[in-house]
Amino acid sequence: MDLFEYQGKQYFARFDIPVSPGDIADTVDEAVAIAERIGYPVVVKAQVKVGGRGKAGGIQLADNADQVRQHATNILGMDIKGHIVHRVWIERSSDIAKEYYCSFTLDRPNKVHLGMLSAQGGVEIEVVAEEDPSAIAMLSIDPVVGLDLATATKWVADAQLDEEARAQAADILVKLYRCYTDGDCDLAEINPLILTPQGKVHALDAKVTLDENASYRHPEWDAFRATETEDPREKMAKEKGLNYIGLDGTVGIIANGAGLAMSTLDVVNQVGGSAANFLDIGGGANADVMAAALEVINADPKVKAIFVNIFGGITRVDEVAKGVLGALEKVTITSPIVLRLDGTNAVEGRAILQPHLSATLITEPTMLDAARRAVSFANA
Amino acid sequence: MSIFVDENTKVIVQGLTGGQGRFHGLRNRDYGTKVVGGVTPGKGGTDVDGIPVFNSVKEAVAATGATASFVSVPPKFASAAILEAAEGGITFIVCITEGIPAHDEAVTYNRLKKEFPDVRLLGPNCPGIISPGKCNIGITSGDIALPGGPVGIVSRSGTLTYQALHELSQQGIGQTTCVGIGGDPVPGTNFIDCLEAFQNDPETKAVMMIGEIGGSEEERAAEWIKANMTKPVVSYIAGVTAPPGRKMGHAGAIISGSKGTAQAKMDALRDAGVHVCQNPTEAGQKMVDIVRSL
Predict the structure, then answer these.
(1) What residue numbers bound the domain in which B227 lies?
(2) Which residues of B are catalytic, by number?
(3) Complex-level ipTM
(4) pTM of the model as a whole
(5) Which of A170, A195, A264, B219 is deepest in the core (most CB within 10 A)?
């Protein structure tokens, strides 16, 4: 789960990482009230989970209440690369002497943590990595050992951060690492980490991605989840406990297992169609799960055909067949359904469906045949 | 021959008294796997359908001589269970648990590497391993696999592993061993470990490798194949049409920026001389053709 900047800053604050004083506003009046409270000048920042806010006009400086009112009015409701701004973060404007970059993430090939630190912050780190890789000081961290202050102190020197920033930066790095590990982040990034002319170091932005597998030990994440604005189809699927991702095509996909679901998308594409979604119903596809899956796909007006691709391993195909029939009793499906059923108890499963097959409920023997049939319906 | 397990491998199931552990543990035994014990703290002395249950891995190993463990416990307890297995003398651990936090996996992996360098972990979040006719540890349905070789299968995805087995078995082509390495970000066993074992296994004549988007394991495998592999490899990579930045089910299946795309992986594999196919059926057919021409 990606956090908004303000949520990332709230998360940082839990780990004593210094951020600019600020607060979050849903309305123009709230924005003005916050600005009056924290003092001018302030920055009004659009809260969207996409880069390029500044260029789109989503970050504005304000010296007084009128300016805050004007900027907040413009920014709230703004469309930034397809993301509508529902909230603005108001924070005290900071004078900037230097901008740095730091982050922690998993180094998957080496199965350790990777810290990245650079004296060239405020720009996209991918660009720095491309143009001047030596400007990024990489640090491999053994997850068993962790990051201590002595190592961080050497690291800030290696990265050639300004002398006066080093002690504070090292302290912040240790805290950010704790946020990353104890806070179960997939990514914890500060860009920029700034040094003010007054010699203070703090985080001016926050980019945090949380590992949802760890949500059982983070009840505080519920507040972040509540604000997730998402595709209405995805919201409906999530409420039904389905692993669904909305796409733009016309063939609705239901498959068991993430790999098979991805593969189903690929095959539909190869035979000239386009998938309307990714949907993995996982193991144990009973009537309720199948009904929920069909319901979610049926609610998508772009869907012209539905491809159910099941390979029974632990999932028994006869159960899936019963599920489909049960679902058809509960939900009126408007698009034709093409099924490919293989694996455990496939013969029994096909037999259960046999008496119910029609022009709009079809089985095909292989994945490719089924994809072709579904695509021919969708493109008709 | 098979890799990592064989007909003599003695297996304990950590979590045998739980719903999943019982279901899969008994299925594995029915397949012919030597499932010699279960471990559930506090339930020592009882049994599950005749399989004795012990309080700890140490006790189970002492009583049964098991060398492999099938870990089927909830995410919260999985890391401790894996480490307990290693401490208890188990050398091959299969963990099917889905949903373990990435940081726990990273710590567990590095502790194993340091404290128990001879222990192999398969998974987490994997379907397990099957050597047809000999040993089945995990959730793969035994009846879709065919004994006798000569194909080795290694896969990052569960259902696509079944699909690969099915494509070969229905055409009469058997498998030496089929290994599901799992889709999590910190897998205990990776493609290269399996490719190397298949390369060294005289009965394996060709290898099918099923990858998916995300990470760079397939690219690394391609480098290894180019430098070391003399046996033919057929590959299929799932997720050509997956949108960037979205997690496709597996925590590991995510394209970040230009990295981890199916295209990059296919290019790397093709460059290493691998037969790269567009879908599982085509990959199955290609492998059938290769085996028949051997």
Answers:
(1) 141-292
(2) 250
(3) 0.90
(4) 0.91
(5) A264
What chain A holds in terms of domains, given with CATH numbers, is 21-92 (3.30.1490.20), 98-226 (3.30.470.20), 232-379 (3.40.50.261)
8 Å CB contact of B279 and A368 = yes
Using the Cβ of B250 and the Cβ atoms of chain A, whether some distance falls under 8 Å is answered with yes
Interchain proximity B157–A245, CB inside 8 Å: no
Looking at the partner chain, which of B101, B110, B253 has a beta carbon nearest the beta carbon of A111?
A: B110
Is B208's Cβ below 8 Å from some Cβ in A? Answer: no
| Alpha-carbon distances, residue A299 vs A233, A295, A324, A333, A380 (angstroms) | 8, 6, 17, 9, 20
> Which residues, other chains included, contact B267 with Cβ-Cβ below 8 Å and sequence gap of 6+?
none
* CB-based contact A211 B103, cutoff 8 Å: yes
Tens-digit pLDDT profile for residues B187-233: 999 999 999 999 999 999 999 999 998 888 999 999 999 999 999 99
Burial of B238 from C-beta contacts in 10 A (0-12 / 13-18 / 19+): buried
Q: Are B109 and B116 in contact (CB under 8 A)?
A: no
The Cβ-side half-sphere exposure at A279, using a 13 Å CA radius, reads 34
List the single residue in A106, A267, A275 with the smallest CB-CB distance to B102. Answer: A106
- From chain B, pick out residues whose CB is under 8 angstroms from the CB of A234: none
Question: What stretch of H or E contains A338?
Answer: strand A337-343
My answer on whether B90 and B178 are in the same domain is: no
User: Can the peptide bond before residue A41 be classed as cis, meaning omega within 30 degrees of 0?
Assistant: yes
